[in-house]
Each structure stands twice: as C-alpha cells, then as structure tokens.
Amino acid sequence: MWCQAKRGRRLPKIVDHECRRQELVEAAWRVITRVGIDNVTIREIATESGYSTGTLAHYFTTKDDILRSALERADNEIRQRLDRIPDDVHPAAALRHVLQEALPLDDRRAFELTLDVNFWARALNQPSLRALQHRDHDVWRQLVFDRVERAQGAGAIDAERSAIDITDVLVAFVDGLGLQGLVYPELLTKERIDLLLDAQLVALGADARQFVRVEIPEVEPSPT
Predict the structure, then answer these.
(1) Are 61 and 42 a contacting pair, CB within 8 Å?
(2) What is the pLDDT of residues 50-101, one digit of tens each?
(3) What is the pLDDT, as a whole number, of residue 13?
(4) Which of 55, 104, 114, 163 is spaced 20 to 30 Å from 180 by Cα?
C-alpha cells in the first residue's frame, strides 16, 4: 500500500518516512525477485517504487544498504511467523517447523534464504556487514536453542546431549542443507530436504511420529 501524505491547509506536506522506507524495501523485493540480487540497480528500484532516485538515495546510500534493509525485513517476518507457533504443538514438531523456516521449501523461503546467502558473501569483506550478520546469526541460534531446550524438557529429543551441541549441529546442518538446496534444486528437492531434516532429528532422538504439520494462524489485517 502506498504511503499517504498528510496534508493540512497552508501547511507543508508531512511524509510518513517509515512507511515510505517500507514501500521502497517492498519495491526492492519485487525487483530482486524479478532480476536477481546481482542485477538490481538503484534506478530500477526507483522506477518500481514510483519515486525518484533522489528519494531513494535519501533512505538508502548504497546497494548493500538496500540489501541489508531487505534482509532485516525478511528476518522480522520469519520471527513473526515463528512467534505464532501455537503453544499446544508437540515440541518435536515445533522444533522441526522452526528449522523448516530456514530451508528453501517454497518460493517465499527460497527468496528469504537467497537474501541471507548473498549477505554472507558481502559480509566476508565488509566489517560493518559482518557485525550485522553476527547479530542475525545469534538471534537465529537462540531461537533454535530455545526450541531444543523445550524439546529436551518434554523428552522429545535426546536429553543426554548438551542443548548447545544439538543447537550447533542443527544450525550447521540447516545452513548447509539450505545452501545446497538453492544451488542444486534438481538434486535436493523439497521432498528430499524434508526427508534429510527428519533423518537428522531422528538421529538426535526425536520420534518421527510427532512430525505433524504445524498450522500457523494468519494475522488479522489491521483496520484501515
């Protein structure tokens, strides 16, 4: 939805800057989806958004700045989805669902993971981006750790092993599986990814009979 300028009689136009910034991020998402991250240009995002390149430059100074904002939005949406996991879901199923959110099992998650992977490459050579990547990784690792502890507490996964060790195994496994799923989709189909994830969880003591699909409630749209 386009931002609406607030106008008053004989007063200058008041712009909701956060709303406009989110519009520009949404435009960047659409362009990235259409042409890929490497082919994105400031001019094309400006054209997509309906604003000038000068307006875009007011909110984002570089292409990496746009990528960072797009990734932050994706991370926020993932966390919001995970926060809506119902409390009555079996801990093993909830842990599995959390891990599935980081895997390219549909177009949305493949896009989010593609943003993340491209950010890894840029973070290798840019200290400021690396700090942000570390922060995002810490948040993700904590989400997995919390679910591992809940599963252990319910006897749904091996409680003899350290929750930290299990978390690190799962995070490393999902990172590698997700990356290969993006690069070799003909070898690692969605069905194959799910199969391998289940096998890893079973190897850590989970019962595959508890791997039911988790239904996430939709968020009611805010009244306008």
Answers:
(1) no
(2) 988 888 888 888 877 887 888 888 888 888 888 889 989 999 999 999 999 9
(3) 56
(4) 163
- Asked if 40 contacts 24 with a C-beta cutoff of 8 angstroms, the reply is no
Joined tokens for residue 102: 């980081």
- Other CB atoms closer than 10 Å to residue 222's CB: what's the count? 5
Q: Write down the pLDDT at residue 7.
A: 38
> Terminus-to-terminus CA distance in the chain, angstroms?
11
What's this model's pTM, rounded to 2 decimal places?
Answer: 0.80
Q: How far is the C-alpha of 195 from the C-alpha of 84, rounded, in Å?
A: 25
Amino acid making up residue 180? Q
Helix extents (H) in 11-105: 17-35, 42-49, 53-59, 63-83, 91-100
Given the structure tokens 């904002």, which residue do they identify?
69
Decide: 27 and 49 in contact? Cβ < 8 Å.
Answer: yes
